[in-house]
Amino acid sequence: MRKAKDLLLGTLLGACLLATLAIVGGLVFAIVHRGWPAISVSFFTEQIRLVGADGGIFWNLIGTGILLVTALLASAPCAVSLALLERVWLRSPQLRRLLRLALYTINGLPSIVFGIFGFIVFVQWCGWGKSWLAGGLVLAMSMLPTVTIVLLERIAAIPTRYVEAAAALGLNRTQIVWAVLMRQSWGGLISGSLLGLARAAGETAPIMFTATIFAGATFPRAVVESPVLTLSYHIFILAQDSFAPAVGTKLWGAALVLLGLVFSFTLAALPARLRQHEESNV
Amino acid sequence: MTRALSWILSLTALASLVLLVGVFTWQSSVIWQRDGIAYVTGHSWFYRQQQFGAFSLLYGSIVVSSMALLLAGPLGLGAALFIAEYLPQKTRLVLKSLIELLAGIPSVVYGLLGILLLRGWVYETFERFEPLSGDTLLTAGILLAIMLLPTVVSLSEDALRAVPASQRRAARALGLTRAETIWSVCLPQARRGITSAFLLALGRSLGETVAIFLVVGRQDNNVPHSWLSPAPLLQAGQTLTSKLGGAETNIAYGDPLHWSAIMGLGLILLILTGAATLLGTVRRERNA
Lengths: 282, 288
What we know:
The complex is a heterodimer. Chain A is an all-alpha fold. Chain A is about 75% helix and about 0% strand. The mean pLDDT of chain A is about 85. Chain B is an all-alpha fold. The mean pLDDT of chain B is about 90. The chains are: A mainly alpha, B mainly alpha.
């Protein structure tokens, strides 16, 4: 009886795992299966034609790239500062805990909220209209907690004896920060940024009011009224009102490219994360 | 120099977040002053008549999120238990990485899948309840459940791993079967962590915008007449996020009352997701 129950629970839980993998894996398969026929060299090098039914996604890729680079450049210095603040400069444990709680809570805030905030502040108050810079800054805000938390954990994992050795050699705090903490943890900044970018690349809600339009934008030459095209918004618009078969294939193709982009960011961050997992399991 | 710079940048980042909360509170003050609590409990939202009742949106958000958690919770927890308790270390790491990879699938991609696959399925499967289309609260709930699955699995697995292996070994040495160990040692000890995982998933589901936007139907003022029948789930609805993500946000800017009603929705959303995430984070801290 006990054996039977044991077996039953094991089977049931195994079935749960299989079902989960089948559902989510099936979705990935569906995208690859339907999107693959659209992928060709010209799909990456041509611009949109016929409202998405023809042509490619060249400017969408460029636009997504511009937003991601902006977000990365804006978030990385802030992430380093916040991580150092928590690890080094703040002395009171209560304040450090408060900062960590704030970071985790911000990480859970909905991206649409950041989008509307950007719409008010950058689009309206600053008078930028839809602009790549507004979108990049909004994405930077939404990815900042992720980057900071990963970097923070990396710095926290540095053995204390390194810091003690540096202090014994007479280095002051600033010197310890640059010679030990940052030197040992720059991998954390990279993997954190990659995870943040993976999230930012797929975001639609923060940029739809602030940075992106469906067609007619190329490389932005100014800040004001300089929107870009992006992959996610392209999919978002086409998904709503397109049933032509040609659009369908292009649409799945764009989804596949976006998925590929997001997955490659996550996979690039994987080795560093696995190493940390294993270290923490020892 | 380093110290000053890092203080300045940190304070800029934190100030912009304080500004975010401030902006939503301040910009929504008009509607709170006009309607007070009736803004939250009012059933009708007709912006041309200047009626702003957020109840149907709150209802939509809560129904969709609870459906998603009810569907994804048990399945995800089951999968997490299998990964944490049955699989060897190597397989566990591979699966865990895979699940974390899948958790990153962008919501617009889920939305696309929802529109092109799930919508038709819901319409056909529930045909005898006579839904008007495949865009229903149920569709949004199922889609959100699928989206949440990897997150629930990953977070619950973290919670289960936080239970020391020595506890499991002790239970097995006492002659308990694997099932009994799970039931009387692992689950009770990971209880805090698991509720924390569910709270974090709840926060995420309340704030999810794009995928829901594409399949929920976006029909205002849908509040069920009877709370017991399942039929209202097969109607189109509207959530806080699908409203905020829609064209009305652009229309509203310029009309102070309408805009503040929209910003009020943002503030409600901030409070709900912020509370769920904060509670979840505090619980997880205690678990660790």
